[in-house]
Amino acid sequence: MSTKKFAAVAAGLTLAMGLAACGGEGAGSDPDTDGGSEGGEAVEGGTIGVSMPTQTSERWIADGNAVQAGLEGAGYDVDLQFANDDIPTQSQQIDQMITQGVDLLIVAAIDGTALTGQLDAAATAGIPVIAYDRLINDSENVDFYVTFDNFEVGVQQATSMLVGLGVLNEDGSEGDAEGPFNVELFAGSPDDNNATFFWDGAMSVLEPYMEDGTLEVPSGQTDFEQAAILRWQQETAQRRMEDLLTSAYSGGDTELHGVLSPYDGLSRGIITALQGTGGYPATIEEGLPVVTGQDAEIASVKLIADGTQFATIFKDTRKLADQAVISAESFLAGDEPEANDTESYDNGVKIVPSYLLESDIVYESNIQELLVDSGYWTEEQVESGQA
Ligand code: BGC
Prior knowledge:
The protein is of the alpha/beta class. It has two domains: 16-142 and 317-358, Response regulator (Rossmann fold); 150-314, Rossmann fold. It is built from 13 helices and 14 strands. It has helices spanning 11-22, 58-73, 87-99, 116-124, 150-165, 193-211, 224-227, 234-248, 264-275, 298-305, 317-332, 367-372, 379-384; strands at residues 5-6, 42-43, 47-52, 77-82, 104-107, 129-132, 144-148, 181-185, 215-216, 258-260, 290-291, 312-314, 354-357, 360-362. Bound molecules: beta-D-glucopyranose. Residues 57, 59, 133-134, 188, 192, 194, 232, 263, 294-295, 315 line the site of beta-D-glucopyranose. Beta-D-glucopyranose binds next to loops.
C-alpha cells in the first residue's frame, strides 16, 4: 500500500472544498482550525478508513458524515463504518480496513483499550492512526488525537448545574442561592477515556461546594465507579436514577435539586425517571430538578427551550471533523499535523500529540446565538426537537 502524491490541487482549495462539503455557515469558519497542509502537496486517490462507535447517538452520525464529506471534498475515498457500540464489530471493521489497504485510519473508539491489536497491525502496514474525539489507550501506535478540551467540558457541566441552582450566575459571578442543595452525580462509560476527564473536570468545580455543605449527595454515591453508566446507555441512566429516587428520596422529605449528567442521552433518561418515579413536574420553573448534559442533541435542545433540561454543552462537531481532515491531509503529505497540546493526553504508553477544540455551555438564553445563528440547528428543528 503506497501513498501517491501529486501537486495539482492547491491545499487551500482542497481545504475550502472540504469545509464547504461539511455544510453550515459555522463549519470550520474558525481561523484557528486553518493550517495543516497549507502550501504542501495534496494526495490523490487515497482511501481513508473512518470508524465511528454507534449510530444510536446523533452526534456520531453527524461526525461520520462531516468527516466523510470533508475527506471526499479533499479528494479521498472514504470507508465509513459504524460499530453499533459493539467492540468485536469495531475491531473487525478496522481489521478489514487494514486488510483492504487504507492509507490512514480515523477512529472514535468504543472501548479505548480494546484496539491495541488493530493499531499494531496498522503500524506494521505503515498506516497512520488519528484518534477521533476519544483517545485510544495502551498503544504507541496512536499518531495524533483530535478532540475537545474534555476536562473543560466537565468544568462547564458542573458550572451549568451551579448556575441552574442559583449558586453561580451565567457570567460566572456568585449567585444569591446558598443551599444546601441535594444533587446526584452521573458519569459516562468507564471504558471511554473521556468519561474520567469529564468527571475530573466536574469534580474540580463541585468538590469545594460539597465540602462546605452547599451541595449534598443524599445517596452518598460520589465515586466515579458508582456514577458511571456503561456505554452511555440512556436506559441504564434512567434505571439508576429510579433506584436513587427509591432508595434516597422516597418518604417525601428529601427533595432533589440537581443532577450532573455528562451526556444528553443520559439526561433524557434521568428526566424520564424524575417525572415518572420521582413524581416531579414537567419544568424546572415548577420544581423539576436541574439536569445538565452534553452534545446539544436536538431532542435535548428542545427540552432546554421548553424549560425541562437546564443546559447542555455544545461541541461543534463540524470543527472537529475539519480538524480531522486537516490532520489527515498533513500525514498524507508526509508532514506532522499541528498540535496545540502535547501534555494532557497520556495513553499509558506515550503522550499523544493533540489538537483540542473549545466547547460552550448552552442555556435557554443562548440557543439562538450558539446553535441557530451558527447554522448547527435551524429554528424549526429546535421547535420540533427533530433533526
Ligand atoms: C463524547 C461525548 C459523547 C459521549 C457519548 C464521548 O466520548 O466525547 O461527546 O456525549 O461520548 O457518546
